[in-house]
Task: structure prediction
Amino acid sequence: MDILGFYSGYSLQIGLAYAFFIACLAMIVSLKAKKLHYLSSHRGIKLFSLAFFFFSLSFFIQFLMLSLGLLGYQVSYLFDIAYSIAFFYPISLSGFYLVYSLVWKHSEETSRRSKLMINLVFHAVALAISVLEVTYSRGWLSFLFLTQICVSSYGIFISYGNYQRSRHDKKHSFLQLYFIAFVLMFLGWVFNYISSVMQSNTLDLYSMLITLIILMIFVYGVFSVTNRK
Amino acid sequence: MAKKRERLEVIHDILSVIRDSGNNIKPTRLLYASNLSPQMFKDYLEELLGKRFIEQNEGGGSKKTYSLTKKGFDFLERYKAIVDFVENFGL
Result:
């Protein structure tokens, strides 16, 4: 079966189903974490939950946009720009919050004011990246992809450190998978980046598959850890 | 020297003391059992009251006691899962 040919022929339908599925998986992870945050008020859990909430939101927005396409609606140029910003903004935020959930303990944020400042900075930077991506990104210059490649590289470094510290502890076995998820995240962004320049359906498919695997890892992690007796 | 307790552990210890005292404990007894300085105890108490893990009961003759709410009981029940989640996700 010619998978590439099939994808090219049905890219809108596949994209629609994929966006919906990814949005649901990410929301499941976010809500599971949110339940634990409600009980614990643990800041790291909240940041983790927010990361997946924004990731889910971005793919839900993509799902809505693709639905319009499937229904035959013609959108204006301005609407297209607004959609792009609406998609890039939460996806940027999700990367920031996910990595920050690993390092917040080492930051100086103690007061409500400093927490608010950090949130404002994340939102401002994510919005700036989204606007720059839409207005100035050309060829190999992509603010979104390059930022997320850097963010996921940093995430690899942090998650590897966590994994090494707990390597012999069977209770923390998921830390290894978390590190693998970050490596895949990095690869996914690299494939997305190259694909955006070279317009490659193959790399598109690879990055979709990688995103799916990453989310399955997190769904597995969240359910296996929270259901332990 | 004793290891510094993490925030979740301190909350667990305080709530456990309340539960194990028949879910009704006087502030002074809770302070001694919590093994915290008076200022830290006050901070944690405010947090636990504010986030509705515990509630304050006014007895006869303005005798104040504390007891767990449903959220407090749920926290104790899910404590292991919460700690596992935090440690397994490096949060």
Remarks:
- The mean pLDDT of chain A is 89.
- Chain A has eight helices and no strands.
- Residues 38 and 46 of chain A are 9 Å apart (CA to CA).
- The interface with chain B takes residues 33, 36, 38-42, 44-45, 47-48, 101-102, 158-159, 162, 166, 171-175, 178, 221-222, 225-228 of chain A (CB under 8 Å).
